[in-house]
Specification:
28 strands; 464 residues; 2 helices; mainly beta; Neuraminidase; 6-stranded antiparallel sheet
């Protein structure tokens, strides 16, 4: 097909699905992202159909899908520990016994959060910090059985990732030191949370994984290597890391045993934003030891990695393991802010066996889509095949699906983020985050960032 033909097909698809004008488009070899995974199906080219306006004004979904609100900020926690905290962000779902599902949910709270995570004895790292995680347990019919604090006293808990042994690694997207913002402890760490029994993991920082503005993590289920993204807002931008644990795949608490933190160096590529062509491949990727993982005097990204330097990237966000590779997202790059080039989002794939890094997907702008800042953030493999991507931009907020052919479809739209004239509504309504699927693939869970709301979406996920 000619390039003109491809562009026309994409515009027609976006118009049919309601994604046109949302500021997002994709090109690239999507099949690389799903090789060897349970999600390696082929949904086709049309997604699940156009979004249907929600009569209750909360969440637009395709016909046949429905949602339930599981939890909203300010409502009482079922544990009686206080109100549901603000700023729902990263999240993951874990299998429990008798068909139950455990959800662990981050709260990206700063000092001014309206509803902090309540401090709980034995689960609080720094009483002055307002972030943390809450855990929900759902029965086999999706009803909420319990909702409780899973960790408190952490700060700006953005994303994270599940471990192969069934725990959640929650990441602090800050590097504030003790004495800043009233904190009693240093921040910028990863913490482990057991969704079924939070007291089993407590509130212990995994200091060997580094102290920097963490975003997300993914764990190699065969080797136990932990990959980490850094979302730094100022130059030099963040790095992509791997942590080589001394006790790989050792189960809950094993990452406390320590290990070696390294940063990715792509020879000849100081800034990933300058790579623009999907399919661009770099062999011989190197890993440089981090001189001071605790950043005692100098932030890690500013440390001396030798005359060959290190590879940076703006807005490193989502990270997940699929097949035999780790994939990670750069939400956008803007030369006006210091990047070497501009883009509206990238998905990279690193194959550790081949030491090969590949740019798999590039996001917009398409011919009809020229809205900068509509960027990919949280991302996950979809139960019906392909990806689910949380949009983080202005105006109406979406969860987009992407098929293996690179076609885009709108899966959900935040109705409360849209004013009557179609413009952005209340600025307090934030982006979607934390998209994840139940272990059986029948339910998609997602968060609205603000006011914090957790949804469960059911419907014909495996409809071809």
């Amino acid at each position: 097909m000619t390039e003109t033909g491809r562009a026309t097909t994409r515009r027609q698809l976006l118009a049919r699905t309601g994604a046109l004008g949302a500021g997002i488009a994709f090109t690239g070899a999507l099949s690389e992202l799903f090789a060897g995974t349970a999600a390696a199906q082929d949904l086709g080219h049309t997604g699940y159909g156009p979004l249907v306006p929600d009569p209750d004004g909360l969440l637009d979904l395709p016909e046949g899908f429905r949602y339930r609100v599981l939890s909203r900020e300010g409502d009482p926690l079922r544990s009686g520990e206080g109100p549901v905290p603000s700023h729902h962000d990263g999240m993951s779902a874990f299998a429990g016994g008798h068909g139950r599902v455990h959800l662990v949910r981050n709260h990206e709270n700063r000092a001014d959060a309206r509803f902090p995570v309540p401090p709980v004895d034995g689960l609080t790292y720094d009483p002055a910090a307002k972030g943390g995680c809450t855990a929900l347990t759902l029965d086999s019919r999706g009803r909420v059985l319990s909702e409780r604090v899973a960790i408190a006293g952490t700060a700006v808990n953005c994303a994270g990732g599940p471990t192969p042994w069934g725990t959640w690694l929650t990441c602090e997207e800050t590097e504030d030191r003790a004495g800043t913002a009233g904190y009693a402890e240093d921040h910028g760490f990863v913490f482990e949370v057991d969704p079924a029994d939070p007291r089993r993991t407590g509130a212990v920082p995994l200091t060997a994984l580094g102290r920097f503005p963490h975003e997300a993590v993914a764990v190699d289920p065969q080797r136990g290597v932990v990959y980490e993204t850094e979302d730094a807002f100022q130059r030099p931008f963040g790095l992509f890391y791997r942590f080589l644990p001394d006790k790989p795949l050792g189960g809950p608490g094993s990452l406390r045993a320590g290990g070696r933190l390294q940063a990715m160096r792509v020879p000849g590529v100081p800034d990933l934003s300058c790579v623009q062509e999907p399919g661009a491949r770099f062999d011989g990727v190197e890993w440089a030891d981090v001189p001071d993982p605790q950043a005692a005097r100098t932030p890690v990204r500013l440390q001396d990695f030798g005359p060959r330097g290190i590879t940076h990237a703006q807005k490193l966000e989502g990270c997940y393991w699929g097949g035999r590779s780790v994939c990670f997202v750069s939400s956008f790059a803007r030369s006006a802010e210091g990047s070497q080039a501009d883009h509206h989002g990238q998905v990279w794939r690193y194959d550790p066996d081949r030491r090969r890094l590949t740019l798999v997907v590039v996001f917009g702008p398409d011919t009809d889509v020229r809205l900068p800042g509509e960027a990919p953030d949280n991302i996950c493999l979809a139960a019906g095949g392909g990806l689910m991507v949380c949009e983080d931009g202005a105006g109406a907020q979406h969860v987009f699906g992407v098929t293996r052919h690179g076609e885009v479809y709108a899966m959900a739209r935040n109705r409360q983020a849209i004013a009557a004239d179609g413009a952005a509504a209340d600025p307090e309504w934030g982006e979607f985050a934390g998209v994840t699927f139940s272990p059986d693939g029948r339910t998609m869970y997602l968060n609205c960032y603000a006011p914090g709301t957790t949804f469960a979406v059911t419907g014909p996920w495996h409809r071809r």
